[in-house]
Write a structure and sequence with these properties.
Layout (H helix, E strand, L loop, with lengths): L9 E5 L10 H7 L4 E5 L10 H13 L6 E6 L1 H12 L4 E7 L16 H13 L1 H10 L7 H12 L6 H13 L13 E6 L7 H11 L4 E3 L6 H4 L1 H15 L2
Parallel strand pairs: 1-2, 1-3, 3-4, 4-5, 5-6
Helix pairs in contact: 4-5, 4-7, 5-6
Length: 249
């Protein structure tokens, strides 16, 4: 693979369900001096829609914003979206990094995941108690070293942000309906898959299945939940930097 100067590289950050681009606040502070960073909000306009048509248009809209020489970094559902984008515009993407993500979030025969009741529970918690849901999630990522950062993140995510219910419904349907396991072996882009061994949304069993399927070892961050880039910042950043350096100069 051609080695690319890191000054010409763009990092494309895609968040997870219920959050917005502010979740990447500290990530951007760490990397914005080295790369040009784009953060994508997974929002839809407030209107009625057909899921299949809107999903295709949704992907097309994101693709239209992605420049050449990009590294896709997707967290949770963002990793699934990044996988689809990578498959569709191979030439523009130099690396694919997924964080606590899955090509299929819903539990199926011989496939670990979350069942419909669990997905609906996530939806209802966000629908009816949005601020507390975000706070509770961030609290799961707390440790002695990041207390101040957790509080800052919460304020930035919640500040002036009104939950887009239509977008949330759409993203929940992605969790329930989209399965791109068949695409993974077709992706030739170098890939880094990061997981937390305590993650209840993306079971660690998924990483082991994909390791065998892709003949590629994933990276597990011990004692971490669904957002290791928050809870285990140093370990996470070191792994990201090492992976990017392998393909850049």
């Amino acid at each position: 693979m051609k080695i690319i100067n890191k000054k010409k590289i763009n990092l494309i950050l895609i968040h997870g369900v219920g959050f917005n681009k502010k979740i990447w606040y500290f990530f951007k502070k760490k990397f914005n001096k080295k790369f040009k960073i784009y953060t994508i909000n997974l929002y839809l306009p407030k209107k009625k829609y057909n899921f299949n048509i809107n999903f295709k248009n949704f992907i097309k809209k994101i693709i239209s914003k992605i420049p050449k020489n990009s590294i896709l970094i997707g967290w949770s559902i963002g990793g699934l979206i990044a996988t689809i984008i990578n498959f569709k515009i191979k030439k523009n993407i130099i690396l694919l990094i997924t964080i606590c993500s899955s090509p299929c979030f819903k539990k199926k025969k011989k496939w670990p995941g979350i069942n419909t009741d669990q997905i609906n529970k996530i939806k209802n918690e966000l629908f009816y108690n949005y601020e507390n849901s975000i706070k509770n999630f961030l609290n799961l990522q707390k440790n002695k070293k990041n207390l101040k950062k957790i509080n800052i993140l919460y304020k930035k995510i919640i500040n002036k942000n009104k939950l887009n219910y239509n977008s949330l419904k759409f993203n929940i349907k992605i969790l329930k309906k989209i399965d791109v396991r068949h695409l993974l072996k077709k992706i030739k882009t170098p890939m880094l898959r990061i997981y937390g061994n305590l993650d209840s949304i993306v079971p660690i069993k998924i990483s082991k299945i994909l390791d065998l399927y892709l003949n590629q070892k994933s990276y597990i961050i011990k004692n971490s939940n669904h957002a290791p880039f928050i809870s285990h910042e140093k370990i996470f950043y070191n792994k990201i930097i090492k992976f990017i350096k392998k393909y850049t100069n």
